[in-house]
Amino acid sequence: MDSINPILLIASLMVASTPILLAALGEMVVEKAGVLNLGVEGMMITGAVVGFAIGVNSGSSALGFVSAALAGAALSMVFAIITQVLLANQVATGLGLTLFGLGLSSLIGKPYVGVKAPGFAKLDIPFLSDIPVLGPILFRHDPMVYLSLILVAVVWYLLARTRVGLILRAVGENHAAAHALGYKVVRVRFAAIATGGAMAGLGGAYVSLVRVPQWVEGMTAGAGWIALAIVVFASWRPWRILLGAYLFGGITVLQLNLQAAGSSIPVEYLSMSPYLVTILVLVIISVRGNHGAPGSLGRVFHASQ
Amino acid sequence: MTTDAYLALDGLTKAYPGVVANDAVSFQIMPGQIHALLGENGAGKSTLVKMIYGLVKPDSGTMRVNNQPYEPATPHAARGSGVAMVFQHFSLFDALDVDENIALGMDNPPPMRELAARITEVSHAYGLPLDPSRRVGDLSAGERQRVEIIRCLLQNPKLLIMDEPTSVLTPQEVGILFETLRKLSDEGTAILYISHKLDEIRALCEEATVLRLGKVVATCDPREKSSRDLAELMVGETLHTPEREGGETGEVLLEVQNLSLSPANQFGTRLKNISFSLRAGEVLGIAGVAGNGQDELLAALSGERRVTPEAILFKGEAIGRAGPNARRVRGLLAAPEERLGHAAAPTMSLTENALLTGDIREALSRNGFVIWSKARRFAERVIEAFDVRTPGAETAAGALSGGNLQKFVIGREILQRPDVFVVNQPTWGVDASAAAAIRQAILDQSARGAGVVVISQDLDELMEISDNFAALNEGTLATPRPAKGLTVDEIGLMMGGAHDMDVAHPEELHA
Questions:
Q1: Are residues B435 and B483 located together in one domain of the fold?
Q2: Domain that holds residue B82
Q3: Contact between B74 and A295 using a beta-carbon 8 Å cutoff
């Protein structure tokens, strides 16, 4: 047990949590608009492979992230057209999207198995990073970690304080009423779905470009499903999503460290612990108070005119 | 053509597949005029106002506002021309606050803090007080309507469209709303008032346009017509008024004692210590504005929600814990308000729907196998006895019109000869002749010696058929009183009076 360094542990917690945080935050925006997109896993893995491929070919991880976001958004548009224009069932379409994304990523990723990622420079923030303890924990990460935290604040502000956010929530809450007031329900949902797709793509690229960093088939390993669960148990609130994602990331890192340190707890229990603990904690939080699922979540909107 | 009308409609036509919703509708609304639009369900009132509000595009015909061509493509455009609308349904967001709801209905809302101050100010000036920071889902039906009205008033409309505004108000609240509307009319705002409540229209409106099957059949001054004249214009035939035979009431069949029930969801109503008793041959009318516990009361009586055993005594037996089927066996039957999805399964045939509640009392299955021929005969008997217009018993319930399905749902229970029949909103959204038939059927049940509990928001209906009368207000039930001799004022007080409304004093706005 002594071999676990708490400073390194906390620092790697932030890295481990970032993909789920990004994907969950994006899915929350989608669900707030009343759409249930179960294709998060598929969009993440597509982002992971596209980001990795572009990153390797261009030598720039930044360009990889941008392409991953675009790829995630593009894939989500398939979902948007099927569910919002052709009015198909969202659950079935989302599941299909995940399966499609997994297959597509294997196809694209074949030539990249075993290739090394281009690397992504960490920010070395002067002075701050030299603070003992806090420096290595908080101020020696790559820009995506900080971007994901900024995005939590941005999403919170947009949803809670701006007119755009109000309209988005209104569309998710009662699409018939929003339509009656003259808001473009389908257009708002397309924008939300694209945002969710882009963020899932970013999250996936973070796994392949920074966290692992190489391409392995199926490497997101259920992170998209955890992101979906976190959105629900966080009661559709951005700061709770941050808490949920960091809790999951933290326990993942901790149990890996425990495994490496040769803990006497069986590996199987350690491996399942992040899933169990995250869901337990968030269930306990969400048991009291209102749950706040958007009123029109998952329902097909048809302007009956 | 030049006139001094604010809004002039000329030859508006809109057809949907299989039905002409509006056929060459023309009329005018003067500035400051309170103009009634009368018609039965399906007469084309909703389609017409949707065209005026930019939600539906007319096939042909023209609209002019202040003599300028008016072709709103969206509600935004309509609001820009000074047209505002208070909806009957579908336009509030339960999970959002009052001020957020109002901001959503405005094109250029001020910053939230300023808006909240304006809401407080305007709502008090018009006698419709509102707290901008409350969640809409927690408001009563009357308060929710205030939100809609204030949302319109904040935009200084030149024409205010009100779609069935009083269906959710107590008589006192209606009085205050009318004061507010008259003040607005004095200030020059034209009002298009849609309703089928004839007394209200005669009290409020200066001109009425009557629609029947999409056509304008009359334009008149409603103050010079009797309610009966107006009703016959709407229906196009002579109305049959239900008759009751004034049977004697017998022994107590149903006794409800201190019934309490917590709501099933966060926006439901808690039932508090409800007590009443029902005798054989009695019709007990329960009034109340929507959302005061009607759905919960029906669920408790039908057995959908379980309560403590002694809270409900049926012929002396404690059945509070018994489920719907156990109650059906004993003779307690119920018909809930929501026709599609609650009283009937929309995609299932009438035969299947008849089976769903009739299985036990009509013995429609044996050893777990359905006897389809018997189920079909039962459905056909309902169709026959209640004049349900349908191609046959194999038609899906969802394909029937509201009135026909309602007749089927009520008839299905009545043909099972209930000892006690509980019904919620028996004639909601049903045309006048079907409503009369349903009321007659309810009265026939009491003449047969059954006890009937009618929960309804239609006071005229309750006064017509009830022996005893009570009102639900925020989950409590006033003590039932004989219906004969009750005044509208007394009824209103039983329903909770004017809550915290106050008569309008708009001069404060300009002070």
A1: yes
A2: 7-240
A3: no
Q: Is residue B508 part of a domain?
A: no
Residue given tokens 């970032």 in the structure block: A18
What is the value of pTM for the model shown? 0.75
Put simply, the chain A residues between 168 and 187 with a CB less than 8 A from any chain B CB are 169-170, 173-174, 176-178, 180-183
| Residue B135 belongs to a domain | yes
| Number of domains chain B contains | 2
Choosing among B85, B89, B93, B133, which should be mutated to test the A contact, i.e. which has the most A CBs within 10 A?
Answer: B93
B301 and B161 within one domain = no
Put simply, the answer to whether A294 touches B92 (Cβ < 8 Å) is no
Exposure letters A124-160 (e unless 16+ CB within 10 A, then b) = eeeeebeeeeebbbbbbbbebbbebeebbeebbebbe
List the CATH number of the domain containing B415: 3.40.50.300
Give the ipTM.
Answer: 0.82
pLDDT of A134 over the 90 cut: no
- Chain B residue closest in CA terms to A167: B104
Among candidate residues B205, B240, B275, the one where a domain is terminated: B240
- Rounded to whole angstroms, the Cα distance separating B300 from B303 reads 5
pLDDT (tens digit, 9 = 90+) per residue, A17-30?
Answer: 999 999 999 999 99
> Helix (H, G, I), strand (E, B), or coil: what is residue A72?
helix
Does residue B198 share a domain with residue B132? Answer: yes
Q: Are residues B272 and B222 in the same domain?
A: no
**Residues B232 and B259 grouped into a single domain:** no
Same-domain status, B261 and B185: no
Q: Which helix (H) or strand (E) holds B392?
A: none
A vs B, Cβ pairs < 8 A, gives: 53
Contact (CB<8Å) B91/A183: no
d(CA B418, CA B334): 9
Q: Confirm whether B506 is domain-assigned.
A: no
Closest Cα in chain B, distance from residue A293 (Å): 9
Hey, is B209 helix, strand or coil? strand
B226 & B307 share domain: no
**Window 261-290 of B, Cβ < 8 Å to A:** 266
Query: Per DSSP, what are the bridge partners of residue B278?
Result: B254
Q: CB of B103 within 8 Å of any CB in chain A?
A: yes
Binary contact (A181, B74; C-beta < 8 A):
no
Tell me how close the Cα of B346 comes to any Cα of chain A, in angstroms: 17
Task: Look up tokens 């809004």; give the residue.
Answer: B7
| Domain final residue, candidates B177, B209, B240 | B240
Tell me, yes or no, whether B177 and B303 share the same domain. Answer: no
Closest CA to B90 of B79, B101, B76, B103: B101
pLDDT (tens, 9 = 90+) of chain B, 511 residues, equals 556 889 999 999 998 876 788 899 999 999 999 999 988 766 788 889 889 998 889 999 999 998 889 999 888 888 888 999 887 665 789 889 999 999 998 878 888 889 999 999 988 888 788 899 998 888 877 788 888 888 888 888 999 998 877 777 778 888 888 988 998 999 999 999 988 777 888 889 999 998 888 889 888 898 888 877 887 787 776 655 556 555 567 889 999 999 999 887 767 788 999 999 999 999 999 988 777 888 899 999 999 999 999 999 999 999 999 999 999 999 999 998 877 778 898 889 999 999 999 998 999 999 989 999 999 999 999 999 988 888 888 988 888 877 788 889 999 999 999 999 999 988 877 777 788 888 999 999 988 899 999 998 888 788 888 889 898 888 888 888 888 878 777 877 788 765 555 555 544 444 3
* Structural domains of chain A, ranges and CATH numbers in brackets: 6-120+138-287 (1.10.3470)
Short-list B196, B221, B101, CA closest to B151: B101
**Burial annotation B475-490 (CB, 10 A radius, 16+ → b, else e):** bbbbebeebeebeeee
Q: Provide the sign of the torsion angle of the four alpha carbons B288, B294, B300, B302, taken in this order.
A: positive
Indicate yes or no: CB of A176 within 8 angstroms of CB of B90. Answer: yes
- Confirm whether B149 is domain-assigned: yes
Q: Do B105 and A292 touch (CB under 8 A)?
A: no
